Amino acid sequence: MGRHGMTLLSLNIHPGIQIDLSTAKTYKIHQTTKMIQGSVLYIVFLSLGVKVGVMAAPLCTTGPAGCHRLPLLELFDRVIQHSARIHGLSSDLHTVYEQFFPSSENVIGGRKCPTSSIPTPNSKDIAQSLTREELTEVILRLLTAWEGHLSYLHDIMAHQQDFNTYSGSKALEMSDLVHQLKNGVQIMTQRMQLLGMISNSLSSMSSAEVLDTPFLERSMSSDHDLLYCLRRDTDKVQSYLRVLKCTILPEHEC
Question: Is residue 5 in a domain?
Fold first, then answer.
């Protein structure tokens, strides 16, 4: 049994979730490659049913009546925990897909991600060299891009005969998780601005402004790329949030 808890007939995708692979094996033996892909993606998006309940209480910037106003440290801890869970889920999804359709070695170095147009630091040292505003903006741009891309994935899956409505709903659910994280980071950013820790000069952006349209158009033929890029970018977001926390609150576990 490996790190992901895989046995001959089942696979533990996430704590509390086990997927029976016997049906997928039957498809693999008796169906065409196209139908296998539909079955595999059904399994992949089935695991998106995990609820990430990090933001249990409303997170308010100014603390009006009925809202639980959290300290900045707890806001950081919550969004970091949320990002870690999303990254863990995206990693598991990528692993499941790779077990059915291993990517060739010569493809890995040539992948193009839908967020490739967003400049991102490729090391902790470079991330630490950015201003607080710059790093916050990178985080928000990545989340905004994936929020739109996952919504697009849901839309195109709804029109693909190889996928059913249930699979499409799981893609939309993943989009909702990313949307929750983006909202949490925005609330945290507003708190830092109110405390004078960062300036109010962050540029606003919409999903359309950061989406890579050519990538979207070929995404259904690039499932490896999509899942690989999602795993990569959720890891980046998690790392950048930790760096930002250490920059803003260096006295706490840094």
Answer: no
pTM for the model stands at: 0.69
Any domain includes 112: yes
Q: What is the 3-state secondary structure (H, E, C) of the chain?
A: CCCCCCCCCEEEEECCEEEECHHHHHHHHHCCHHHHHHHHHHHHHHHHHCCCCCCCCCECCCCCCCCECCCHHHHHHHHHHHHHHHHHHHHHHHHHHHHHCCCCHHHHCCCCCCCCCCCCCCCHHHHHHCCHHHHHHHHHHHHHHHHHHHHHHHHHHCCCCCCCHHHHHHHHHHHHHHHHHHHHHHHHHHHHHHCCCCCCCCCCCCHHHHCCHHHHHCHHHCHHHHHHHHHHHHHHHHHHHHHHHHHHCCCCCC
User: What CATH code is carried by the domain that includes residue 108?
Assistant: 1.20.1250.10
For the stretch 151-199, pLDDT in tens is 766 665 566 555 445 445 556 667 788 999 999 999 999 999 999 999 9
Q: How confident is the model at residue 70 (pLDDT cuts 50, 70, 90)?
A: confident
